[in-house]
Design a protein that fits this description.
- With 269 residues, the chain is of the alpha/beta class.
- 49% of the residues lie in helices and 15% in strands.
- The protein is globular.
- The model is unreliable at 261-269 (pLDDT under 50).
């Protein structure tokens, strides 16, 4: 039985000129768009990506053109709080996990946002050899009804890249998870999403490593207090240079807030 679809709303916000979309139902919005045959590129924005975008106009333009940009990091939530906007994080890994569960059994979304109960197909691309495959196996065990269309690790030659493109074009998977790291995954999605124009494309960063058991997520008490970055730095100390973007982002956020407040006071005088 086909149900009438309703589209959850998205509230627009901006972080240093980059778009941000706020919603109480990202999952419903995504699957509604897919039902309407609208392709979607999902960007999970955090402070590090925001600072990268300042130095990389191409990345900034990709973020601006993405159909859905969610507040992945605590730094983004901190920025919004300074601007008087309260919002919760939407960690990209958790959004991807919710998409995977719902793709296997769309009927669980009983809010009237779907018109089918058939599983949606999923393609995993990225990560080191063996990691992506292990992540897919773990998900297949966790969600037996998951329809995995294909798996491909991220260390492939140009010829293998062309084979991957042909595979995606043939399979037309409903959901494509790309774990190549920022900004490589965003660039790759931009260059290849025309192959599957109706698909949901999500850059998932290092999620395959976590799903495969190669790495672990930070304990909840760290995540809930905005300290997940410390745990990630502990696991990946080579990232320390990139982590310098976090205090830079926080400082810029404070300066921006104080500058706006000063201008507002002068305007009232």
């Amino acid at each position: 039985m086909v149900r009438e679809l309703t589209q959850p709303s998205l509230e627009q916000f901006a972080v240093f000129g980059l778009p941000l979309h706020l919603s109480n139902d990202y999952l419903g919005w995504l699957f509604h768009q897919h039902h309407q045959q609208n392709g979607v590129h999902v960007v999970t924005l955090n402070a590090e990506m925001s600072m990268q975008a300042e130095q990389n106009p191409t990345l900034a333009n990709i973020i601006r053109q993405a159909e859905l940009v969610v507040p992945d990091g605590s730094g983004i939530v901190f920025y919004m709080w300074l601007q008087g906007k309260k919002a919760q994080r939407c960690p990209g890994i958790e959004l991807a996990e919710a998409v995977l569960r719902a793709s296997a059994n769309p009927a669980v979304l009983n809010s009237g946002t779907l018109s089918t109960t058939a599983p949606y197909s999923v393609f995993f691309y990225g990560g080191a050899p063996g990691v992506c495959e292990k992540a897919a196996e773990q998900w297949q065990q966790r969600v037996p009804g998951l329809a995995i269309a294909g798996v491909q690790h991220g260390y492939i030659s140009p010829d293998e890249q062309e084979n991957l493109r042909q595979t995606l074009k043939t399979l037309q998977p409903d959901i494509i998870l790309v774990g190549l790291g920022v900004p490589r995954q965003e660039l790759w999605i931009r260059d290849n999403r025309h192959l599957c124009p109706n698909s949901i494309w999500i850059g998932v960063g290092g999620s395959f490593d976590i799903w495969a058991g190669v790495k672990t997520r930070a304990p909840k008490w760290l995540s809930n207090n905005g300290l997940e970055w410390m745990y990630r730095l502990y696991q990946e100390p080579w990232r320390w240079r990139r982590m310098l973007a976090l205090p830079q982002f926080a400082w810029r956020s404070l300066v921006y807030r104080l500058t706006r407040s000063s201008k507002a006071v002068k305007a009232r005088v």
